[in-house]
UniProtKB/TrEMBL annotation:
SUPFAM superfamilies xrefs: PDZ domain-like, Ribosomal protein S5 domain 2-like
Coiled coil: none
Domain PDZ: 100-186
Entry keyword set: Hydrolase, Membrane, Protease, Serine protease, Transmembrane, Transmembrane helix
Name of the featured protein: endopeptidase La
EC number(s) on file: 3.4.21.53
GO biological process, any: proteolysis
Length: 338
């Protein structure tokens, strides 16, 4: 009888545990991800080989259940975020993932541009409009445009670059109304938005962050297979790997080099999230050097947080601050071959 009671209690407890694991809290949990070599991911046609490796670093992010939440509370290098800090208001999980994959796509393009420009190789552009990355709260675009919208006409006009788009908008007056022709989920629509002066810049606009929607053609051809990795934070490391395959000189010098940071088409390196967790991931993967965004020497920069984490986990990995692609290349060119 006791044996049956014990078995029944065990089964009930197991069912409760299983069901409760599917109950999600209004939080996300992030934890150290992986550090992955880029040479198998990036292939430049007839590219040069390297003795060491460049590695991208990732953070694992997922919705929190009661168990992952509890574990994160007790773990030093896991973080808990409320949903609104990760996903935009009314943004579904699917829409969030789509936005992250789109950010990855644009970061790959910027990485290709940066690397090929540095190597002195011409790039051909096919401009299709702009993508909306962010819509700022309490700005005219708030509630009318969404992240992921593609704007390909303004007042019926098409443009050949985002610079032309910005110049056109900036040339108007506060209170003027413009008509955006957008594509959202394969549906074309027109949206009227009044212009205002953006407090941070003093320029006329609608309150969006944008990125070019363009296709680029390069020779030699380059392919980047990122599968389901999302977000823009690997852009800088992509650019290093692409450039290293384009030039004869092996900039790895035989070292295992990890890092993180966004990249724009001008080679500027930007701040990312989860730098502490990426340091942990890179250390576990055996990285010897880690590039961290310096943010022009800000006290709360990614670099400062990376140094603190490196000291905390007692790694021998060297943390290197960078603001631009050129700075990283100069550092690598001065490295002694391992």
């Amino acid at each position: 009888m006791k044996k049956k009671y014990f078995l029944r209690s065990f089964v009930i407890a197991a069912i409760i545990l299983m069901l409760s694991s599917f109950y999600y809290l209004p939080y996300y949990v992030s934890k150290p991800g992986m550090a992955k070599e880029l040479e198998p991911i990036i292939q430049v046609e007839n590219g040069h080989e390297e003795e060491g490796s460049f590695m991208l670093t990732t953070v694992r992010m997922g919705k929190a259940n009661i168990y992952s939440y509890a574990i994160a509370k007790l773990s030093k290098y896991q973080e808990i975020f409320p949903i609104e800090a990760i996903r935009r208001e009314e943004e579904t999980e699917e829409e969030y993932n789509v936005r992250q994959l789109h950010l990855m796509a644009t970061s790959k393009q910027a990485a290709i541009e940066t690397a090929y420009k540095k190597a002195g190789i011409p790039i051909k552009y096919d401009y299709n409009g702009i993508f909306v990355l962010n819509v700022f709260p309490n700005m005219p675009a708030d509630g009318k445009l969404k992240a992921g919208d593609r704007i390909f006409k303004v007042d019926g006009k098409e443009f050949e670059s985002s610079e032309q788009f910005i110049t056109y908008i900036s040339g108007k007056n506060e209170g003027d109304e413009v008509v955006f022709t957008i594509e959202r989920l394969k549906e074309i629509k027109e949206v009227k938005i009044s212009l205002t002066k953006i407090p941070e810049t003093g320029k006329i606009g609608v309150g969006i962050a944008l990125v070019d929607d363009k296709e680029i053609e390069v020779t030699p051809n380059v392919t980047i297979n990122t599968e389901e990795i999302g977000g823009p934070s690997a852009g800088f490391m992509f650019s290093l790997e692409i450039y290293n395959q384009l030039v004869k000189e092996d900039l790895t010098r035989g070292y295992q080099i990890a890092g993180t940071g966004t990249i724009d088409s001008n080679g500027n390196i930007g701040k990312i999230g989860g730098i502490e967790q990426k340091i942990v991931a890179a250390d576990k993967a055996g990285a010897e050097i880690f590039f961290a965004p310096n943010e022009n020497g800000a006290n709360d920069s990614n670099y400062q947080a990376a140094v603190k984490t490196a000291e905390d986990i007692k790694t021998n990995m060297k943390i290197v601050p960078v603001d631009t692609f050129d700075e990283a290349i100069e550092y690598l060119q001065e490295l002694k071959t391992k």
